[in-house]
Structure formats: C-alpha cells, structure tokens
Specification:
Layout: E1 2-6, H1 16-30, E2 34-38, E3 48-52, H2 58-67, E4 73-76, H3 79-88, H4 90-99, E5 102-105, H5 110-113, E6 122-124, E7 143-148, H6 159-165, E8 173-178, H7 184-196, E9 200-204, H8 208-217, E10 220-223, H9 232-240, E11 244-247, H10 250-256, E12 263-264, H11 269-281, H12 283-296, H13 302-316
Helix pairs in contact: 2-4, 3-4, 6-11, 11-12
C-alpha cells in the first residue's frame, strides 16, 4: 500500500515525533509498503494516511478525510494530545478523533484518557527498542543515574537534579542528563543548576551512541515527566536492563505496569530523593527494579511492534 505518514516535526528534528515517524516508516517498509514521511498532507493520493498528533496534524487529518472519505486514516495520539490539547482545544482534537478509523496509543492506559465514545477505536502499539547493542557495566566508585529527555516543562527535566542536590554527604550519586533545551531559558536553567550542584551534569543534545553509553555506564534512569504519551526512552532502558525510577503518571504506568516499585508522585522531590537513596544503598531494591523491567521487556521487542502494525493494517483492509 501507499502510505503517507504525517508528523509535525521537521526532517532535521530530533524530537520524539520525528524519531517515531522514522521508526514506523522502517517497520512499514519491512512489511512491503511504500511510505513517504511528510510534515503535512498536501493533497497527494495515498491508500492510508497515518498522522502523528491529533491537534498539530489536524489540517492534514481533516483534509484527507474530506478528500478520501472511505480510505483508512490512522491517528497516533501523543502525550500532548491526550493530556493537553484534548482539554485545551477539545473541538479541534475531537474532530481529528472523529475522522480517524483507528487511534494508535503507545501505552496500555491510553484508552482511559480518551472520551468513551472513541475507546473502541484505540489500538496500542508499543514502541520497540533493540536490546543487543548495550552491555551493562555501571561505574563502581560512584552511583550514577541518567535522565534522557529534552528540557521542556512537560518533562520536569531538572527534578532529578533537585533531588540530588540535598542528598547526604556520604552519597555517591551523580546525575547525567542528555537532551537538548527547548529554548534558551531552559539551557540557562541547566547551566545554572550545574554551577550550583556538583552532582548534576547536563550533556546537551547527544548522538544515539552516547545515549547507549549512558545506558551502559549508569545504575538507573529517572523519568520525571508530568505527561507522556509513552516515552521510547522507557522502552530503551527496559530493553537495556537499566532500572527505571519514574513519576507515577499514566504514560509511565502504562509502560512499566501498575506494580512497578520505582514510582514517585510527580514533582515530589523528596519522594524521588528517597527512591534514589534506596536504590544507591539497597542492592536488593535495585535488583527488584531490574526484574520488574525484565518482565515488561517482551512488550518492547521489535518483532512485536512489527506484528502490531501488520495486524492493524490488515484490520483496515
């Protein structure tokens, strides 16, 4: 089939939507389809339109449905859709949901976040991560954690740094943060934090091989987001065997499962500090986090993501 995949993120973007679009295009091509990635639908014919972001891609979604009322249209729900624009601009977002034959979610709790009348259209396709490229060898003299994510409000990106700032003097904790700044204010905030906090180091935007190095050399990952559609860094950490400490939000619980022991309330610096202290001082707790991740790892296997897309497209034929 001829598939147009629309993402609002430009070709040079390293933000999540563009990365997801590239991976999905590779998966769909491996299934024998012809795929073109565009930042907007501009009238070209296609057998299927897949649109990332119900709100930002609304014009493409509405235009394709008007031009091809019977052709399959898939809308992938991002975190900013279901936890933001569905409430801030519900008319535009709901219209996109109405146009869609299928709504793709990236974590198990997406269905609970959309209005009841759309839940039957939701299909969950977990983002995959390959495990074979990471060999775990964490540092021995320090207790290092990584934060992998861009500096923007939704990520609450400096929460791990704040938690590290008041660790006891005997703690060996260090926080390494990889991710670009959304704007100069966030970059300045990260630099200011480094100047005041010797436990925190902002690495800026780094290539994938350096992210994999962090997965190899750190003892745990912290994901402190306030809202997530299903962060691929969680899939990557689990596949790498890296323990995850996460804010208790739907996007994280929907990936790690309700019984994961490493949750803390969003924006609760003290609770995060306690978990980090426990992870550093209690090898059994760190091992428990690793085992819980290993039980979820099959969800993020590349072949499972590929099969999910195969079944979804077969359903729409």
């Amino acid at each position: 089939m001829r598939i147009i995949l629309v993402t609002p993120a430009g070709a040079r973007s390293r933000f999540g939507n563009r990365i997801t679009a590239r991976r999905w295009a590779a998966v769909l091509r491996s299934l024998g389809h012809r795929v073109a990635i565009r930042t907007a639908w501009e009238g070209a014919s296609a057998d299927v339109l897949i649109a990332l972001h119900a709100w930002r891609s609304a014009a493409s979604i509405h235009g394709f449905r008007a031009r091809f009322p019977t052709r399959p249209l898939i809308v992938a729900l991002t975190g900013t859709d279901i936890y933001g624009f569905l409430h801030r601009d519900s008319e535009t977002t709901r219209r996109s949901l109405e146009c869609a034959d299928v709504l793709v979610g990236l974590h198990d709790l997406v269905g609970e976040a959309v209005p009841p009348e759309f839940r039957a259209r939701v299909r969950v396709v977990h983002q995959s991560a390959a495990a074979g490229s990471v060999t775990r060898r964490p540092a021995k003299r320090t207790f290092d954690v990584c934060v992998v994510g861009h500096l923007r409000r939704e990520k609450d990106p400096l929460r791990a740094a704040a938690a590290a700032r008041e660790m006891p003097a005997d703690s060996r904790l260090r926080v390494f943060h990889a991710g670009g700044a959304r704007d100069p204010d966030w970059a300045e905030a990260a630099r200011r934090e480094m100047a005041l906090n010797p436990r925190y180091r902002w690495l800026g935007e780094v290539p994938p091989w350096r992210v994999r190095r962090l997965y190899e050399r750190t003892h745990a990952m912290v994901i402190s987001s306030l809202a997530e559609g299903g962060a691929n860094v969680v899939s990557e950490a689990v596949a790498a065997g890296l323990p995850v400490i996460a804010s208790r939000i739907a996007g994280n619980v929907g990936l790690l499962g309700p019984d994961h022991p490493g949750y803390f309330p969003p924006e609760d610096t003290g609770a995060l500090r306690s978990l980090l202290r426990r992870a550093e001082s209690d090898p059994g707790f760190l091992a428990e986090l690793t085992r819980c991740g290993a039980r979820r790892a099959p969800l993020f296997a590349p072949e499972r993501e590929r099969e999910g897309w195969r079944r979804l497209l077969e359903e729409l034929r």
